[in-house]
Amino acid sequence: MGIADICPPTDCIPKEIQAYRFTYEIIGDERNFIPVYLRTPRRFNDKSDLEKCSGFGISLYKSEEQAIAKYTTLRNIIQNISKTIGTHLAKGKIIERHGVITPVDVEGHFDLHESEECNLHNEFIILRKIA
After folding, report:
1. Pick from 126, 131, 123: which is nearest to 26 by CA?
2. Structure pTM?
């Protein structure tokens, strides 16, 4: 069994949900909605297929507070995290035509596995600077 057999995971569903994402200052910045696996594939060299599959999703949070808490944690353990994941927090609405999402975890995190026609640059707005 390979990654194509398990991605997106079978527990993903299309769902309408408010979402928060770390971004750069300009919402149209091409880096804002590229899955981490596509930006830094070497980071996944020793990961399981399930972890690689997560890397193909767009990482999102259910609430502003949960997103800020995660960013704070990352900033405390990873120097220059703002260069990697962004300096701002954006808010948008995920709707069913955007793709399927994983279940929201205890930290409020979920992945969006995008559909072909998904363009999140048009769905999100910058809320504020967080770095």
Report:
1. 126
2. 0.93
Question: In this structure, how many other beta carbons lie within 10 angstroms of the beta carbon of residue 66?
Answer: 17
Hey, what are 60's tokens? 């999102």
> What is the total count of domains within the chain?
1
Cα separation, 126 vs 120, in Å, equals 12
- Residues 19, 99, 56, 59: what is their CA dihedral angle, to the nearest 10 degrees? 0
Tens place of pLDDT for every residue, the chain, 131 residues?
677 678 999 999 999 999 999 999 999 999 999 999 988 888 888 988 889 999 999 999 999 999 999 999 999 999 899 999 999 999 999 999 999 999 999 999 999 999 999 999 999 999 999 99
CATH of the domain at 15: 3.20.170
Give the domain range for residue 8. Answer: 3-129
